[in-house]
Amino acid sequence: MSSKIRLGILGGGGDSLIGVLHRVASSMYDKYQIVGGVFNPNWENNISFAKTLGLSENRVYIDFDAFIEEELKLPVSERIEVVSVLTPNFLHFPMAKKLIENGFHVICEKPLTTTLSEAKTLESALKKANTIFAITYTYTGYPMVRQMREMIQSGVIGDIQKVDIQYYQGWINPILLDKSLRKTIWRLDPEKGGVSCCIGDIGTHAFNMAEYLTGQEVTSILADLNTRYDDNPLDVDGTILIRFSKYVKGVIRASQIATGEENGLEVKIYGSKGGFNWKQENPNYLYHLTDNKPLQVLKPGHAYNGALSLNGTKLPPGHPEGIFDSMGNIYYGVAKAIRNEACDSGEYPTMHDGVRGMKFIEKCVESHKSGNIWLDI
Ligand SMILES: NC(=O)c1ccc[n+]([C@@H]2O[C@H](COP(=O)([O-])OP(=O)(O)OC[C@H]3O[C@@H](n4cnc5c(N)ncnc54)[C@H](O)[C@@H]3O)[C@@H](O)[C@H]2O)c1
Q1: Calpha distance 352→337 (Å, rounded)
Q2: Residue 92 alpha carbon to ligand 1 centre in Å
Q3: Which InterPro entries match (predicted)?
């Protein structure tokens, strides 16, 4: 019998953006086997997509309730062990809650939920369940992000003094310009996306990156958001000042109306002895700056990198690895945790990161609506 972890998937069907990333990631280290799930609320689409994956029809369910009911009837040795929740945001909470309460491990897409209160409920449920919960802040899986984290936290750039993280996309711009298209996008619908579009969707990645890399928590924020049009209910752009402490400050800039931008996540972190620049669209290059030496460029797979970075590189240096590998590295970390193997704290983002993300989103919206005031998080 296969020793692979039995994986179920909710959402992520053939029509989705993120499904393929999770399927490839789950296969990358030969640790998981996709067994079943609910890929689409439409049965025809659901079953036909499951067939293209070669899944057994009796493990493809008409909806989430049937998934839980039928899986629980199976002996533990056959039951799905971990479930990836890849649906639009509003379904993360009800699905994750029931999964946790019924003993499944969960890999949940971000943002964790649509409200902070839901996030806290999940956090309490997880404490009782003692199962593994990961949230896929995908970019933490890149080898050079992990290397940057290790070097920052071991003091290579000294004491952090400035954090500047930008996440610019432009894809919503043409959708906003055409009112009929706006209704087709769940991210712009508060019922489905939550209280925020841009900050919830991508600002939260930038926020997570700030805390993941520095190992410090943001203590307060001031947000200036932009919905761009009166009849658009949710933000599509935002600039957020962040403070870690009195002398450690920074900015998060996120936009989905940065016309023509693709997936421009860019990290700039400066300390008393040096700085780092890293760009998601060119992820195998980490730039190390100092006052008095030439610019250094670090790349994956070389022995000068630390263990966590090297663990996430599968090919010799010079073979570019990208977003699939980054997500694959997170799945690898979760597999180790599920199998009770030694696992570094930087290997996968946890429930704590998900709750922090929801605090950030809600406080940004509150700060903006209250006249751009500083709020503690
Ligand atoms: N980590 C990342 O970098 C990243 C990137 C993109 C999206 N996401 C997150 O992934 C999630 C999905 O985003 P997306 O862009 O793939 O959305 P999408 O709209 O492209 O796909 C959603 C999928 O969920 C399915 N679905 C909808 N309702 C369902 C239900 N009741 N049961 C089962 N399946 C259902 C749809 O059929 C579709 O296959 C969101 O929470 C989003 O924030 C994360």
Answers
A1: 16
A2: 10
A3: Gfo/Idh/MocA-like_OxRdtase_N (IPR000683), Gfo/Idh/MocA_oxidoreduct (IPR051317), GFO_IDH_MocA-like_dom (IPR055170), NAD(P)-bd_dom_sf (IPR036291)
How far apart are the CA of 307 and the centre of ligand 1, in A?
33
Q: What one-character DSSP code corresponds to residue 109?
A: P
Q: For residues 201 and 336, what is the distance between their CA atoms, to the nearest angstrom?
A: 28
Ligand 1 centre to CA of 185 (Å) is: 11
Helix (H, G, I), strand (E, B) or coil at 99: helix
Calculate Rg over the CA atoms of the chain: 21
Tokens of 115: 């409200």
Neighbour tally for 5: CB within 10 Å: 19
Phi, psi for residue 185 in degrees, rounded to 5: -110, 110
Give yes or no for a contact between 220 and 166, defined as CB atoms under 8 angstroms apart: no
Distance of alpha carbon 189 from alpha carbon 233, whole angstroms: 8
> What's the CA gap between 126 and 173, in Å, rounded?
38
Which domains does the chain possess?
5-138 (3.40.50.720), 143-315+350-369 (3.30.360.10)
| Total-model pTM | 0.98
Query: DSSP states of 163-192 as a string?
Result: EEEEEE--THHHHHHSHHHHTT-GGG-HHH
| Structure-block tokens of residue 137 | 């802040």
